[in-house]
Specification:
Elements (H helix, E strand, L loop, with lengths): L8 H6 L1 H11 L7 H11 L2 H11 L8 E8 L2 E7 L2 H18 L16 H10 L7 E6 L3 H4 L2 H11 L4 H12 L3 E3 L2 E3 L11 H9 L1 H10 L2 E5 L2 E6 L2 H18 L9 E3 L5 E3 L2 E4 L2 E4 L1 H23 L5 H18 L13 H18 L12 H6 L5 H12 L1
Parallel strand pairs: 1-4
Antiparallel strand pairs: 1-2, 3-7, 3-8, 4-5, 6-7, 9-10, 10-11
Helix pairs in contact: 8-9, 13-14, 13-15, 14-15
Amino acid sequence: MLEKYTEDIFKIASLPETRQSALERFSKGTNLSGDERTALKTYLLSEIVLRDIQMLKEGNYYFDEFTAKKRNIGGKERLIFSLPFEQKTIIRLINYGILLRYSAQFSKDLYSFKIGGNQYKSLESIRSCSNFKDLYLFKTDIKSYGRSIVEKEMCHLLDSFFAQDIELCAFLKWYVKRNTYYLDDVLYEDAPVTKDGLSFSGLFENIYLTDLDSLMEKEADYYSRFGDDILIGAASREKLDGLIGKTKNIFDKKGLTMHPMKTSIFFPGERFEHLGVIVEGSSIDLSEDYLAYIERRIRKRARKLAILQRKKILPKEIVLFRMIQWIETLKSDIEITQRYSFITTDKSLKKIDRMLTDLIRGAAAGTTGRKKYQVSYKELSKWGYKSLVREYYEAISCKK
């Protein structure tokens, strides 16, 4: 599929089919307003975007100053960078062109920022590894990965990775070195290489550890990396210790540190959590943190509908319908059906189903407490509700 993309990235980004597929890909974001979708389409399919691509190819890097905001993500304060809408979009388009052209150059065991790669594929690799439950495992997370990437080393890697695309390499190196940004109207000069929040961050995080990926692909009995989440498996503890030592050496050379609270060694079959799932022996199930996240999302919606029912603004039947309709949208938003491909048990899905039906019935009764509107599963099905357990078994049946 990727062989046809042999031109330079700026030419690939200019192709009508690239811009059309980029539009379809970018429009899937649930956080886009109607006006933003219209602006996205207008820009990507216009002559203006072709002019902007040509300017970048010629070395005219016309971007405004970066702006940054502090965001709390996972209990940790991070800087999220941004640019005006069209400038942010051109970065996404160039990034998409790189993904089309260069995905095949990344290791097969790297699952972030590549065509056909995502966290679900990473978890599927655990399920498809026949001797996984017999392996000694090393799991680690890179501490402040984006902020730890060294500019000089990144530029050296870009020279090597994009040796056949000089104009692209020059642009990416300019982007890496540009360290000024505004935060609360104050100009700072310490922007990290990745500029989290903009599309190139995943690309840089992938390229920075390509040597580790190549090494582990040859030497480890199991290996997967998704961004800064690393999982290494070996048939013996002695072999695993050797691989850990080699990983530490690479980290030391690149200025990276393993997160002390997220680094562990596991014996064969020992329970551990990874990318939102619990793995124990041959069993893979959704983690408690993921279940709690789903519950928070659903309870928030149920409370709003319960208030409308309690105040007699909406009748029970409409509350039922809207709640079920919203749950179907949520399933897509949190991509729960994609998880059916790697979980091996319906235990967590049963918990979610009980929670969903309780909250649907509670909202229809005007409460999220114990009082419930008495309605059967058969009746809920008529309104469009389908249990996750039923969907799961239908999915794995189709796969067989």
